[in-house]
Amino acid sequence: QQVSAMGERGTSNHSEVTDFILVGFRVRPELHTLLFLLFLLVYAMILLGNVGMMTIIMTDPRLNTPMYFFLGNLSFIDLFYSSVIAPKAMINFWSESKSISFAGCMTQFFLFALFIVAEGFLLATMAYDRFIAICNPLLYSVQMSTRLCIQLVAGSYFCGCISSVLQTSMTFTLSFCASRAIDHFYCDTRPLQRISCSDSFIYRMISFSLSGIIILPTIIVIIISYLYIVSTVLKIRSSEGRKKAFSTCSSHLGVVSVLYGAVFFMYLTPDRFPELSKVASLCYTLVTPMLNPLIYSLRNKDVKEALKKLLETRNIIV
């Protein structure tokens, strides 16, 4: 009630807003401890899994390939954008005010938008990498050169940065005079839009167009890559060969399904069901970064062998 009362104090325009209230999950206060422990456990697994994955890739020479270069960057992105969200959410479980400064909200929004968009483009890059590896294996080392890999990853971050600059500048030039209470556990587009008293039609159209420009190309690249992959794999006569080819793609498909499934579910959820939107947001802000290292390590023979070697080396040193 205190948070709600604080959040309802109006302001005449966005320049007078100095902070926001992150309402978070509308649950009984006694459940905050349980949610805090759950967030802490998930975030600890994210740190352990993604730092571990990056360490394995950087220390094992056998993993010095384009696929693992992309996977290392995926782990970095997952680690970073979950760290933008989780610590503040955990602090708010114990905070009475649940406030976040205007600059803090804008920074959180900018960084999260940057890395979530970069992940989408990186997943499309990984699909293209699998397409070359399976459909043109003899030319793989030539086509997926070190220079091209660096350019593709840099391009993913660049697209994320441009998109984030546009989204952040559009969102934080809105007037926030209706309320200071953001009905979410982090600063996101739709909750901020709900508390704005600006005419949102143009904003919605630009935001929708920008989302289409970001999402459609990545999905198209992924779908076309896998259509060619399936076509090529089905031409392989031996069942063992088909199984091996599909196994190199199954982890990537799992990651893509979880991320895009959660994103589509969240944005297709009507505004009148904000709690459902929060649950969907949890899937791609915390659950996906937690699952990605598990998916790749459990289903990847090279990663399991590299992990075993790393653990054996540590035991010898100890």
UniProtKB/TrEMBL annotation:
**SUPFAM superfamilies recorded:** Family A G protein-coupled receptor-like
* Major localization class: membrane
Provide the G-protein coupled receptors family 1 profile domain boundaries: 49-296
Return the GO cellular component terms, semicolon-separated: plasma membrane
- Gene3D superfamilies for the chain: Rhodopsin 7-helix transmembrane proteins (1.20.1070.10)
Membrane topology type, per the record? Multi-pass membrane protein
Q: Where are the transmembrane segments?
A: 34-56, 68-86, 106-128, 148-166, 201-229, 249-267, 279-298
Subcellular localization, as worded in the UniProt entry: Cell membrane
Lineage: superkingdom: Eukaryota
Q: Name one Pfam family in it.
A: 7tm_4
What UniProt keywords are attached to this protein's entry?
Answer: Cell membrane, G-protein coupled receptor, Membrane, Olfaction, Receptor, Sensory transduction, Transducer, Transmembrane, Transmembrane helix
Question: What's an example of a GO molecular-function annotation for this chain?
Answer: olfactory receptor activity
Enumerate the InterPro entries for this protein.
Answer: GPCR_Rhodpsn, GPCR_Rhodpsn_7TM, Olfact_rcpt
What protein family is recorded? Belongs to the G-protein coupled receptor 1 family.
Q: What does this protein do?
A: Putative odorant or sperm cell receptor.
Record-linked PANTHER family: OLFACTORY RECEPTOR (PTHR48018)
Protein's name according to its UniProt entry: Olfactory receptor
Species for this entry: Ursus americanus (American black bear)
